[in-house]
């Protein structure tokens, strides 16, 4: 194989590989010999079909497979010989005009991971905010629980139904005077004012008494799920079989027992533990932000543009998706596009922090054990239908990038905990409200996976109204999958070669490209 470097600028590299035709033909010959014992052809005994006939029958597909495998082996050889550390999958393209029997010219483009100076982890100073569980918050949650466990008792005879009451009805729904499928039912309980039924249904039942009959005149919403009912006028003939009022719910031992607990004290203890866990999470988030800010302020090195672009597109895609659910979609999208430069700066910060944490972890022997990995795979597999779980587990085990995505959050947590242990930590008493206010007040904060934060880069010049859950994208969390030192870069299949399976950067054995099973519907 002949190798010519065509670009070496910053982190970008490009090469032209010339693969001799004899190398491709030799692989075809090996493949012919491998499949010969299984080839069947009329007039020949099994395994005795001449190789020239096998080539005639299967030559095109054999050559395509051999070409793909040879190209991938050549890319792996290039990476090994040049001691490259690809940031993402190399782009591999077969030059136009290639034909069987000719040398193959392959263009390879990639960005390498930067050579980073030794991370500075000495002298870190952090503040841990401490807060006690607020009893008033516990009382408020108990009240909410009581409201969610509302019991209904038969109302006094002649009681007229009001909002908050439960009305039990039999009903027949009709469109153009004809009953429609799914529009008839008995003993349906409706809490007036809940908004669970189509507009006007609950409102027209206010004032009815047990035994009353009434015809409701309604219009199905234009976005109603059933196509045959969208926007249609309808009538519902209803009969009220019962009217019930909400009974007072006492927060006592019986209330706790109804929830499967021993007594009220056990319920309060569980709620207190829950609040304490939430406080611990807020405190950790606050410390983590300060830690990442210090790391970002003390480390500056070039990052691969391709990684920044991928992270930027992920951020923008998330924001655009959230904007699509806003009342004023166009305004929300316009706000996002206006801040695109800010988000690109956030993407660069995320990538840099991800690479930095990966370097710190690798330099200090931080890793994910096989037991931990098995637990992560099991937790992720639980999101799939039982019939798909084994296939998902196999997919992760055979796909290094998928495994890296699973490892990344835990790996990041381990590196962060390691840095916490190295820092000088002081404590300051606070309250939950103060911690939340401080977290929310910082410009650029975004709630997302890891509850991210990127206010150090590209701060907006003034406070703005957040479009479409803008907080969902500017996370403190480094770019997903980039904090795992085990993430492998794999070459993309050469174009226009078909069905070329990408292989691990440090492994010459091709890994079959597989699609992960779809998650179960939630």
Automatic annotation (TrEMBL):
InterPro entries: PPIase_dom_sf, PPIase_FKBP_dom, Trig_fac, Trigger_fac_C, Trigger_fac_C_sf, Trigger_fac_ribosome-bd_bac, Trigger_fac_ribosome-bd_sf, Trigger_fact/SurA_dom_sf. The keyword Cell division applies. Residues 164-246 form the PPIase FKBP-type domain. The keyword Cytoplasm applies. GO terms for molecular function: peptidyl-prolyl cis-trans isomerase activity; protein folding chaperone; ribosome binding. It catalyses: [protein]-peptidylproline (omega=180) = [protein]-peptidylproline (omega=0). Residues 442-460, 469-491 have a biased composition (Basic and acidic residues). Residues 499-515 have a biased composition (Low complexity). Its EC number is 5.2.1.8. One of its GO terms (biological process) is 'de novo' cotranslational protein folding. One of its GO terms (cellular component) is cytoplasm. It is found in: Cytoplasm. It holds the Pfam family FKBP_C. Residues 431-522 are annotated as: Disordered. Keywords: Cell cycle, Cell division, Chaperone, Cytoplasm, Isomerase, Rotamase. Consists of 3 domains; the N-terminus binds the ribosome, the middle domain has PPIase activity, while the C-terminus has intrinsic chaperone activity on its own. Involved in protein export. Acts as a chaperone by maintaining the newly synthesized protein in an open conformation. Functions as a peptidyl-prolyl cis-trans isomerase. Belongs to the FKBP-type PPIase family. Tig subfamily. NCBIfam families: tig (TIGR00115). This is Trigger factor. The gene is tig.
């Amino acid at each position: 194989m002949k190798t010519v470097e065509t670009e070496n600028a910053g982190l970008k590299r490009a090469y032209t590989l010339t693969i001799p035709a004899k190398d491709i033909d030799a692989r075809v010959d090996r493949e012919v010999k491998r499949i010969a014992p299984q080839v069947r052809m009329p007039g020949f005994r099994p395994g005795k079909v001449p190789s020239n006939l096998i080539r005639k029958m299967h030559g095109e597909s054999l050559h395509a497979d051999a070409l793909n495998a040879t190209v991938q082996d050549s890319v792996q050889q290039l990476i090994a010989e040049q001691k490259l550390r690809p940031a993402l999958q190399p782009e591999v393209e077969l030059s136009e005009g290639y034909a069987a029997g000719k040398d193959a010219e392959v263009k390879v483009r990639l960005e390498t991971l930067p050579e980073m100076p030794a991370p500075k982890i000495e002298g870190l100073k952090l503040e841990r905010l401490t807060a006690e569980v607020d009893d008033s918050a516990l009382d408020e949650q108990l009240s909410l629980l009581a409201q969610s466990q509302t019991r209904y008792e038969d109302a006094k005879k002649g009681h007229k139904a009001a909002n908050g009451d439960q009305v039990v009805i039999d009903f027949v729904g009709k469109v153009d005077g004809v009953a429609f499928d799914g529009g008839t039912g008995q003993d349906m309980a409706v809490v007036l004012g809940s908004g669970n039924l189509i507009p006007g249904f609950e409102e027209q039942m206010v004032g009815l008494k047990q035994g009353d009959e009434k015809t409701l005149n309604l219009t199905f919403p234009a976005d109603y799920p059933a196509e045959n009912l969208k926007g249609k006028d309808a009538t519902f003939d209803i009969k009220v079989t019962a009217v019930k009022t909400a009974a007072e719910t006492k927060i006592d031992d019986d209330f706790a027992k109804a929830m499967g607990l021993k007594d009220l004290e056990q319920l309060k203890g569980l709620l207190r533990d829950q609040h304490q866990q939430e406080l611990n999470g807020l405190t950790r988030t606050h410390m983590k932000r300060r830690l990442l800010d210090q790391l970002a302020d003390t480390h500056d090195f070039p990052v691969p543009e391709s990684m920044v672009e991928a992270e930027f597109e992920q951020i923008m895609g998330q924001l655009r998706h959230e904007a699509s659910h806003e009342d004023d979609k166009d305004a929300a999208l316009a706000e996002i596009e206006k801040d695109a430069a800010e988000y690109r700066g956030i993407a660069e910060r995320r990538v840099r922090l991800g690479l930095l944490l990966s370097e710190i972890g690798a330099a200090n022997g931080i890793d994910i054990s096989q037991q931990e990995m098995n637990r992560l795979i099991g937790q992720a597999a639980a999101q799939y239908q039982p019939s798909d779980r084994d296939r998902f587990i196999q997919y992760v085990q055979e796909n290094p990038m998928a495994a890296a995505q699973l490892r990344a959050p835990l790996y990041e947590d381990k590196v962060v905990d390691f840095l916490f242990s190295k820092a000088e930590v002081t404590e300051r008493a606070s309250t939950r409200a103060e911690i939340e206010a401080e977290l929310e007040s910082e410009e650029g904060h975004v709630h997302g996976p890891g509850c991210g934060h990127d206010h150090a880069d590209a701060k907006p010049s003034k406070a703005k109204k957040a479009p479409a859950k803008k907080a969902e994208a500017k996370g403190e969390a480094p770019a997903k999958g980039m904090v795992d030192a085990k993430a492998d870069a794999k070459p993309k299949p050469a174009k226009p070669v078909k069905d070329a399976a990408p292989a691990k950067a440090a492994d010459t054995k091709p890994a079959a490209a597989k699609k992960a099973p779809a998650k179960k519907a939630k």
